[in-house]
Specification:
The structure holds two protein chains of two kinds. Chain A is mostly beta strands. Chain A contains no helices and eleven strands. In chain B, the strands form three sheets. In chain B, strands 2, 5, 6, 10, 11 and 12 form a six-stranded mixed β-sheet that branches. In chain B, strands 3-9-8-7 form a four-stranded antiparallel β-sheet, with no helix packed on it. Chain B is globular, with a radius of gyration of 13 Å. Classes of the chains: A mainly beta, B mainly beta.
Chain lengths: 114, 112
């Protein structure tokens, strides 16, 4: 079974530039999560989708971050414009459903904002 | 709100030593508790979990018991190997929203 795929694996940009990350979850998984992991901290949930609907985006900085999962499969997370404090690893995870199902994580995208 | 506090690292051990990583939590409801592990160069993966009080999760020689009275979920392994070198994260998922709240992670290095 293929795991959660993410691209790119690494990205370096300058502040005020835009960047987008892509995630393809495990086939059949209805729930998709984006996390931000700042160096030395645990992952923090940014947004959670159930199929193509948003379940929770309470911790997403909506003035600069956006995410979509238009067809209920793969997803894109965008930052526009980026700030220095956005430097982090962005993790995508997926699970079968919502009810405490195990979340499977992708390898992450390491973003450096200069 | 929900939060997880885990023992600060880094932790360095010799092979075959006993490992304990402390984890305590605060939750508004009745959470499920997890330990995730991140091996060098790999993604986060679930190590073990427990969904109710006094449950013991176990996997790969690791164990953790859900202690409601002390709001704790400490991770233990009796004899570590070099291959156990990784970052370990304690996490909780509360009833109703199911989103994971993670601790800061504990880096464990096992020397041969």
């Amino acid at each position: 079974e293929a795991g959660v795929a993410q691209s790119p694996r690494y990205k370096i940009i300058e502040k005020r530039q835009s960047v987008a990350f892509w995630c393809n979850p495990i086939s059949g998984h209805a729930t998709l999560y984006w996390y931000q992991q700042i160096l030395g901290q645990g992952p923090k949930l940014l947004i959670q989708f159930q199929n193509n609907g948003v379940v929770d985006d309470s911790q997403l900085p909506k003035d600069r971050f956006s995410a979509e999962r238009l067809k209920g499969v793969d997803s894109t997370l965008k930052i526009q414009p980026a700030k220095l404090e956005d430097s982090a690893v962005y993790l995508c995870a997926s699970s079968w459903g919502l009810a405490n199902d195990e979340q499977f994580f992708g390898p992450g995208t390491r973003l450096t904002v200069l | 709100g929900n939060s997880v506090t885990q023992m600060e690292g880094p932790v360095t051990l010799s092979e075959e030593a006993f490992l304990t990583i402390n984890c305590t939590y605060t939750a508004t409801g009745y959470p499920s508790l997890f330990w995730y592990v991140q091996y060098p160069g790999e993604g986060l993966q679930l190590l073990l979990k427990a969904t109710k009080a006094d449950d013991k999760g176990s996997n790969k020689g690791f164990e953790a018991t859900y202690r409601k009275e002390t709001t704790s979920f400490h991770l233990e392994k009796g004899s570590v190997q070099v291959s156990d070198s990784a970052v370990y994260f304690c996490a909780l998922s509360d009833q109703g929203d199911y989103k994971l709240s993670f601790g800061a992670g504990t880096t464990v290095t096992v020397r041969a």
